[in-house]
Structure formats: C-alpha cells, structure tokens
Design goal:
The chain is an alpha+beta fold. Helix 9 (386-399) crosses helix 10, helix 9 (386-399) packs across helix 11 and helix 10 (404-411) packs across helix 11.
Amino acid sequence: MEFNYSYSGNSSISNRGDRTNMSFAPDVTRTPTYFRGELRQNIAFREAISALHDVVVSDLRFQPKDKTAYKEWAAQRNEIDWQLIATQRQTITDRLRELDAEMTELRRRSSQRSQAYYQAVSRYFDYLYQKDRDAWFVLDPVITVHPDEVFFECFSQDESSYGRLGASYEVFKNVGDFACGTTNVDYSASLYDEFQKIRTYKSTVFEVDPAGFGVKTAGEVAYKEVKIDLPDTWVRGFLQVNSAMSLPAISFDLHPMDIYNLCFVLRRRQEKHSPRSMKYLLTPGEPIRVIFEPWNLEVVCDRSLYHGTKPAEIRTWGRRRLLILERLIPVARKFTVHLLGTGLPSFYVADLHDLSFTLGLSGWTANDWAKAGNFDLMAPRATVDDWTKQRVFAGLQENWLETPDNLATRLKLDRSIVLGALSAYTQAGRAIYDLHKQVYRVRELTQEPLPIDKLRFANDRESAASEFITKKLVKVDSSSSDNNGTLHLAGTITDRSQTFTPTVEIDRDERLVAAHCTCNWHQQTKLFKGPCEHILALRMQHQRTLVRL
C-alpha cells in the first residue's frame, strides 16, 4: 500500500542561547492543519517526545545470525583435512601445496572483492542507524490538532507497538491561531537529537508550520515529495491496535516505582527458553502482583492496590517493549494499565500531568500465522446502516471529540448504535478512542479512504472464520489443559451443510503447536500454509468465551 506525501520543506529546530524554535513541516496535500505555542512544561515534553521516538524505531523481531564467516572457516578446515590425507605421497603433497597457494591467493582476491558486500549484510541495521537513521522511520508520525489538545501518533517497524502523545493546551503558553485537523509531519533522526537539547531555562516554541499551505497556491517553493510503500500487515496492525482501545478491558493504576521495578527485572535477566510471559495476578483489595516466567520471579506492587470486584489472572507477551516507558518514570504521576485478556493487546497510559503518553502493545512482538485469528479486533460489534453511521460521524465532527453517551443523547440514538458506528469508523482509521480522557476523537489517518475490505483480514480463511462466528456456527465441545499447561480444544463447525470437527493444541506461550481438521484443505496442506478457517474459528470462539467470562 503506497502513501504519498508532499512537504513544503523539512522540519527543523533552531537553537539560540535563550530560545529554541521547533517547526514541523505538514503534508500540504491534506486539509490545512496548523498550531503554534510556547512550551510551558519543557522537560516532560522532551521525555515524552523521546519515548515516542523509541516507538517509531522499535524493531524487536528476531534477527538471524550472520554465518558467512563461519562457513568460510569451515570450508577452509575441510580443505586442510584433505591435505593431511594426501601427504602420504610426496609428489601429490607438493602439487597440493602449489594448488593450496593458488587457492589461498584466489580466496584472498575473492574476499577482497566481496568484503564490501559481506560488511553490508552483517552490519546492515547498524549502518542504517549510524549513517542513515532517517531510513528507520517507516511512516512519518501523524499529528492531530483538536480544540483541547495536540497529539502525535506512530507505529513501530515490527508492527507490534503503538505510541500516542497527547499534549493539552495547558502544556503551552501564548497559544496562537490553530486549525483543527490531522496531517503527517516530516520527521527525521536529526530532530530527535535536537529534542534532547530542550531545557527549562530556554523558551521553546512548538509550531506546525502553516506557511506551506499558503505557498502551495503561489507555487514559489519546490516541495519535498515522499512516497512510502508499506505492507498491508503494517497498516492492518495499526488499525487493529486502534480498534482494541475501544474494547472492554480490566484497568488498574501502577505507581511509577512499580513500573521501574518491572523494567529493572527485564534489564537484569535474559530469558533463554519458554514460557516468556508476564503474568498479572489481580486480587480485589490487595497489591497487584506480577510473575515473570520462566523464572517464576514475583514482583509485588505494594504501592498499587487492585480495586476491581473480581479476581483475575492475565498473561501478556512481548514484555521487553515495556522498556519504552523507562524515560517517563521520573516525570509520570501514575501509569494506568488496560488489559483486554490473556494473549490480547494491552495498553499503558502514563499520566504526565497535562501530558499523556499511551503505549499500545499487540499480543506478541511477532504476529505470525500461528497466532492469527486469536482476536478479530476489526470485526464490527454491531450492524449499523450507512446513513446512520454517517450521521454519527457528522455529529462527532461537530465537536471533534465526545463521549458515546453524550453523542447518543444529542443525536437521540441508542447507545449501542452509536458505539457500533464509532467502532466502524475506528476500524477504518477515521476516528480514535482516547483511553486517557475516555472519549472518541475525529482522526483521519490518511487523505484517501483506506481499503478496509482488503485490510480487515489477513487472508480469506480469517474472513471465513469470522463469518462462522457471526452466524453462530461454531461450538466448543471440550476445553482442557494437561500437566504441561497445553490447552486442548475440540469443537464442531457447520459449513455448507457439512460438519467439521477441528482440534487445537495451544501451549503456555499461546502458540498453536498442533491442530487437525477433517476439511479437505487441511488434509492437503496440513499446517504448512497455516491453519484452515475451521481451526481459526474454533480458537476465536474459545477466546471470545474467555473475554465474556
């Protein structure tokens, strides 16, 4: 999926002895959006915008080791062993020496010619970071100006982490004219270095430059054209995390020192085998406890009590992404955690007084087919006709942000209808749910509408599995766990007057380790091309049952 942007110049930061000017160049092809104000809370903003940068460059996917040098060494050892065998005859030995000398020279020449290539392969990501860090930024951050705040959004390279920085107008002073809307801003690695120079003794002016929109008509400036071709999985992941924010969740507050203790454990220990989860143990009226597997190390959050009404045990994965929050610990008042359930996305909202930082994490750092269909966050929760959806969205646009209850009262619609319409626009990238203020906001992710039918499911099997769930054709017949913690599921699914009996085995890390189905597609491909729609539907139905409980 290709995204095209046009900037009137580059974003820049100019520093003087007593003043810093931060000017972001917006995308001039979009609706004019601009803002200008002087920072009042310099340090908190510096740390929050730096944490947002950590989300942008985050990529915790497994990187295979470069074994090129080892293979060259092994080949040379094999040749030496053959030489030792051949020394039984002097004449052959002399000839081998000549050939060995010739081969040594040829290898030296080959290594010399290929040296640049091997260095590029083995040091590729390091080279990008040191020489061309702008290449690390997959998509320029999205900035939205609203009547009450300005907020940034970004998504990580590994498609697993979402960051949102919201700055209310109390963060600024001498706020000038502004135009509400959403746009992309030109962002580079050099800007991050400049952010680190923000100080309290220097006045800092923050600006989303409106000049480019006026220049566009006059045609006086050459525009910077940017074209980015993103995989569908990246966009789909971004929309999934956005949709997940509006789903029901178990919420509780953590003291900043409790977050520090969690990060401390992650810094001091390195897991080498499964399971690698972080288990939250929630008991009403008692301190929140967190267990790190596989060491079964328990961290008791004495400063943070769980105020829920029911006990819960929730496991999350991809825990090293929490280290993004480290910079926020000194300036945060509290962290609010929202857990959707075991293996589902989780959200950490840092309260930075007049700033808020939201870190959204997918169920795993790497989302492969073995976990596909574990949650269908992009499936609508209510069926709403197009006219009503447009009416709800138009009502939201009037005030830019509103709670579902207020919107339902004002439009005289049922609350479930309003939520269904807002959910649909959230899935389409045109609205967002603000976890910090508990309101829906207008946010057009792109200038042109996204092909939601193409992005909604990763493949046709996921689409078919979701349809089975919607039509209530899936039944979980049995669910049990063995001594190793492996979950065994069995069920029946009616598909076109045929009945299929899929079975699924899920290990303690929520990985699909074994599955079987009586359908023809599974009999032919097994799991080499991923699970069939019946296996996916069985797992999705089981997960929905857990969420309802």
